[in-house]
Design goal:
- The chain is mainly beta and 115 residues long.
- The chain has one domain: Acid Proteases (Cathepsin D, subunit A, domain 1, Beta Barrel), CATH 2.40.70.
- The chain contains one helix and nine strands.
- Strands 1, 2, 3, 4, 5, 6 and 7 form a seven-stranded mixed beta sheet that branches.
- A hairpin with a 7-residue loop joins strand 5 and strand 6.
- It starts with a strand and ends with a strand.
């Protein structure tokens, strides 16, 4: 899990890094922090292990918080469904594909940087 800030003034939230996730998926309470994101017009459906959820996609900048080194601001596409019961996820499509990253499972560290 890593900390991200979904807006420049937003409080950091914990997210699960999931390279198999189609999108970043945020809980409804985190969606309230997306005030500077652009809402994309169409409703979309996302099929997950918890079922199918209908929601909206938002596009804006997220800051990956760093325990060491510098934080990184990157554009992200985020799925928000009002009834999403799971944790916050950082997915490959819409965010991780836009950065260089590595995971060290032995130390449980996530390394990231610009492409």
């Amino acid at each position: 899990m890593i900390r991200i800030a979904p807006s420049p003034s937003g409080r950091p939230v914990l997210t699960v890094v999931d390279t198999a996730a189609s999108w970043c998926v945020f809980k409804p309470d985190v969606a309230a922090l997306l005030d500077q994101f652009d809402r994309l017009p169409d409703l979309v459906a996302l099929s997950t292990r918890l079922g199918v959820f209908r929601g909206r996609l938002y596009r804006g900048f997220i800051t990956l918080m760093a325990d060491e080194g510098e934080p990184l601001e990157v554009q992200a596409t985020v799925f928000v469904a009002p009834d999403w019961p799971g944790p916050n996820f950082l997915g490959y499509q819409g965010l991780l594909q836009r950065i260089r990253f590595a995971v060290d499972p032995e130390s449980n560290r996530f390394y990231f940087g610009r492409l």
